[in-house]
């Protein structure tokens, strides 16, 4: 029931009384549900295993009955402003069956409140404290009692060296550690931690801007089982450190090197990771088709590749990926002026392709998009914003050959009422962004909105709002569609369109 903002304690109480065998209940963003409603759920639904109370205005009063649920395995309290140390200290019980606890965005909960909430949770396996209080030595020490802990996420937290060092002597064998955007992570504390957590499978050090070659050397030499490494924008890590990843981490299935100092030699080393499924190389200005050739010829299991704003890539590099990676499901080539219809025609040979992002590629046209529509019948997501040469012909091909399309952004395209109406005939279409499409009229847009019966969200320019009858907007909203109105000025087109 996430985001059902009109639901109150009365409605939740009716569900609690009538559906006593519930095992999973999500009330995320149900802002009118309070301690009373949550307490009723806890008292009436004894079999509850998963309870999501994110962003609810609740306090420790409702947690007391919740923690008495003997079968509860997952409790999500993300962003609950009424949850704090003082209130949690009054709790008399903890839930021994709890395996997953999410306290992200609960900045008033420190190691004191955490200890109160988990005093009997000896089975805890996942602990999520992202964007919460500072990771201190006391917090690190409080985690030692959880011998079965496998996943710890501290994204966005202020991390102290003493806090990281307190984690070093854990008896638990972590499988996943996430330190994305953690201020305070240094080479010394990270190196020491990974040397004691050699069974790590997933590590996220995105935007840890103080780490250098030393950290990567420790990670790659200590964590031989690593299958996922995310390290976007680690700006102090030198090029040679990335070579170590290719040489030592042969089990990698996911690698994020977005906005880092890598080149074709690094891609050659990474191509040794033959199990790679997800590779992100966005904003890597030094890579070219020569490096991408090695990926296409050796990483044959690749399903996702991100080349966002990697301007050294051309049609030839995309052709290597399309030829060597037939299981490809997602590719992002946004804002690359070197990509043309030739690249799209190459990708049309990837029948499993589901997501294609080519916004800001001014030299692709309806010819290439039509090839994608014919060859990639599983397409569900398409971003063609600022593809000025895509017109009604492309929309007609999508209408004919892409029955699974669910989301499209066609802002700034050369589409008219004819193309939009054709698009509206796709039964699965749920999300559309239509900003600054000069060829559309108010009547054409109205007809398309009425025809697209499964639409859940549409983003339009605010200038259209006053031209629609209020009754029309109410009717479409009653079908479950959310309007998002934008007042962005039209950006100037700096490239000539061709016929």
From TrEMBL:
Pfam families listed in its UniProt record: DUF7885 (PF25372), LRR_6 (PF13516)
Membrane-spanning segments: none
One Gene Ontology cellular component: SCF ubiquitin ligase complex
Gene Ontology BP terms: SCF-dependent proteasomal ubiquitin-dependent protein catabolic process
Domain of life from the UniProt record: Eukaryota
Domain F-box/LRR-repeat protein 15-like leucin rich repeat stretches: 226-372
Protein name: F-box/LRR-repeat protein 15-like leucin rich repeat domain-containing protein
Organism: Corymbia citriodora subsp. variegata
UniProt lineage: Eukaryota, Viridiplantae, Streptophyta, Embryophyta, Tracheophyta
């Amino acid at each position: 029931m996430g985001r059902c903002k009109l639901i109150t304690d009365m409605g939740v109480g009716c569900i609690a009384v009538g559906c006593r065998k519930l095992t999973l209940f999500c009330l995320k963003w149900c802002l009118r549900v309070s301690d009373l409603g949550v307490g009723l759920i806890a008292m009436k639904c004894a079999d509850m295993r998963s309870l999501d109370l994110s962003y609810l205005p609740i306090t420790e009063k409702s947690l007391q009955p919740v923690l008495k649920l003997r079968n509860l395995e997952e409790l999500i309290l993300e962003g609950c402003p009424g949850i704090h140390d003082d209130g949690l200290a009054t709790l008399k019980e903890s839930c021994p069956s709890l395996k997953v606890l999410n306290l992200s965005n609960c900045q008033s909960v420190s190691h004191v409140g955490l200890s109160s909430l988990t005093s009997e949770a000896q089975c805890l396996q996942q602990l999520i404290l992202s964007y919460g209080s500072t990771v201190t030595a006391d917090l690190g020490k409080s985690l030692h009692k959880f011998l079965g802990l496998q996943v710890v996420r501290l994204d966005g937290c202020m991390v102290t060296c003493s806090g990281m060092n307190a984690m070093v002597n854990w008896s638990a064998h972590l499988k996943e550690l996430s330190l994305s955007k953690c201020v305070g992570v240094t080479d010394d504390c990270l190196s020491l931690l990974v040397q004691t957590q050699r069974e790590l499978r997933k590590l996220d050090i995105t935007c840890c801007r103080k780490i250098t070659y030393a950290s990567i050397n420790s990670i790659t030499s200590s964590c031989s089982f690593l299958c996922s490494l995310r390290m976007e924008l680690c700006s102090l890590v030198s090029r040679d450190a990335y070579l170590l990843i290719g040489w030592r981490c042969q089990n990698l299935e996911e690698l994020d090197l977005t906005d880092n100092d890598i080149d074709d030699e690094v891609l050659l080393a990474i191509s040794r990771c033959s199990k790679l499924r997800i590779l992100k190389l966005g904003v890597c200005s030094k890579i070219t088709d020569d490096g991408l050739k090695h990926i296409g010829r050796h990483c044959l299991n690749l399903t996702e590749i991100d080349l966002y704003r990697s301007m050294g890539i051309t049609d030839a590099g995309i052709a290597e990926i399309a030829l060597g990676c037939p299981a490809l499901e997602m590719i992002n080539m946004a804002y690359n002026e070197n990509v043309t219809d030739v690249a799209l025609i190459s990708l049309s040979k990837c029948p499993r392709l589901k997501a294609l992002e080519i916004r800001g590629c001014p030299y692709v046209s309806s010819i290439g998009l039509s090839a994608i529509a014919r060859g990639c019948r599983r397409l569900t997501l398409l971003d063609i914003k600022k593809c000025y040469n895509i017109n009604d012909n492309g929309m007609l091909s999508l209408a004919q050959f892409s029955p699974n399309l669910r989301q499209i952004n066609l802002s700034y395209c050369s589409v008219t009422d004819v193309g939009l109406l054709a698009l509206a005939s796709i039964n699965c279409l749920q999300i559309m962004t239509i900003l600054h499409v000069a060829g559309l009229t108010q009547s054409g847009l109205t007809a398309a909105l009425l025809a697209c019966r499964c639409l859940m969200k549409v983003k339009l320019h605010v200038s259209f709002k006053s031209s629609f009858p209020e009754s029309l907007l109410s009717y479409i909203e009653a079908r479950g569609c959310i309007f998002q109105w934008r007042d962005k000025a039209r950006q100037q087109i700096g490239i000539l369109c061709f016929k």
